[in-house]
Model the fold of this input.
Amino acid sequence: MNTAELPAREAMEFDVVVVGAGPAGLAAAIRVKQLAPDTSVVVVEKGSEVGAHILSGAVIDPIGLDALLPDWRNEETFVKTAVTDDRFYVLGPSGALRLPNLLLPPLLSNHGNFIVSLGDVCRYLAQKAEALGVEIYPGFAAAEVLYENDAVAGIATGDMGIGKDGHHKPGFARGMELRGKYTVFAEGARGSLTKALIARYGLAQHSEPQKFGLGLKELWQVTPDKHRPGLVQHTAGWPLDNGTGGGSFIYHYGDNLVAAGFVVHLNYTNPYLSPFEEFQRFKTHPLMRDTFAGGTRLCYGARAIGEGGWQSVPRVAFPGGVLAGCGAGFLNVPRIKGSHNAVLSGMLAAEHIATALGEGRANDELAGYEAAWRSSAIGRDLRPVRNVKPLWSKFGTLMGFALAGLDMWTNTIGLSLFGTLRHGKPDYATLKPAASCKPIAYLKPDGKLTFDRLSSVYLSNTNHEEDQPVHLLVRDPALQKSSEHDVYAGPSARYCPAGVYEWVEEGGKPRFVINAQNCVHCKTCDIKDPNQNITWVPPEGGGGPNYPNM
Ligand SMILES: Cc1cc2nc3c(=O)[nH]c(=O)nc-3n(C[C@H](O)[C@H](O)[C@H](O)COP(=O)(O)OP(=O)(O)OC[C@H]3O[C@@H](n4cnc5c(N)ncnc54)[C@H](O)[C@@H]3O)c2cc1C
Ligand code: SF4
Done:
């Protein structure tokens, strides 16, 4: 059946439609209702419940929550452990050099911050939103942007009940149209609709390419003697070589919980590199391994983060809609923090929406939001660190870090040595042909400290309806073979943290296999495929990971 023959979709009208129940989307919904209680607000979330697709560190800077819900600290909320000890190490293969806190620019300090599960924070925000009358629909992916007169007029959720080969199964149901006077796109890093909007309205024409990292995380319950509640520890260096950006985080909080994670910058050049295996290797470092001995790994997941910062943020307002949170690129790279700016940007967008609705406006461009963010707390957070990522990429970890530290210090007093540096190539264009790179030998997992991908994905509770069209679209299969496989030696099999992609030999020929049901929605393939030949689109709503508390 082609689209013209399909039954019409039902439509519902709202003042404000929000895509994504992360901190940005929920903060936007709450703030609109705080300012204009009679406004109708709906939030759609592709995860099976709020929080199911949220993966973060997370050490949160409370500036956002303090502004949104000033009483949150006094309430019985999610588990929050105040940071008491803040450490930064540069690792070598067997040693570690701790940088004195006094050397680190004050903006990197975690004093006054809290260690939390961001998924739990989102569940708390969702309760607050619903108490204010916001309608939240988990299990529904926004699959299409609706336009009227070239302005955004809302979104449509995906059709349900389509089989792998496109046929309509017995339970087939068309998606819903959720029409709004303003739509907030808060899809997080590399949002699929956000990507389409950036292309349609040329939002990134005057900004630097967005840069990304892949963040992997395991949640551990460690033995009580290993637990240091309030300890926040970051590392750079080993196991990555000096030319590959990234680092680790270890946060001790709650009931003997340790959030352990590793970020690899996606402008790495060697197609043989595997971010997943680097993370496993990191845990074997003498500084680290003891923390996990005798402990239990509870959960695993992965998610891309936006690293371009200040100079990569596209235009965030366009007719009828706005971008907020990490979808706009508001993450602070050296702090590895974005949730505070997600909340602040959701609030800022909501304030401009409430004003516009109060003036009887609809579906126009909220130019005030665009103009406001750079001089707001978000801009003040991002501007001083804008050269960290370009310096790191250009000079490598050791020299890049030293220069970035100097630049952050001088920016703290309002000076900059470098102006605003450019990022250079987008991440998909940085891989070198495999013939010029060395394969990397990774460890065999021991099943206690280090693991393989499939047993890890199992701990993400990922689930997709199997009989549905593959949501990882390969535009040109021949190009995948001639370039991704023949030139780059199939990096998708290594960068995908969930083992979705495989090149298998069949009758002497390589065949590209996509195990779409394992996808944890990290979006790395959409970012790193060297030919931009893979596009991630939302699968049926409710599919994907089911993170309990990531
Ligand atoms: C490994 C890692 C560690 C991090 N550590 C920290 C930290 O310690 N502190 C910190 O402050 N920040 C940290 N961050 C960053 C932080 O997680 C983000 O800045 C924050 O989550 C961004 O919030 P958001 O609302 O913009 O997007 P997200 O949190 O990504 O939420 C987006 C939501 O939208 C939903 N969605 C997306 N597309 C659609 C669609 N089409 N239809 C319906 N729903 C959709 C998603 O399922 C998701 O629930 C970390 C990130 C990672 C990956
Ligand atoms: S298929 Fe793509 S989005 Fe899914 S887990 Fe793998 S790299 Fe991430």
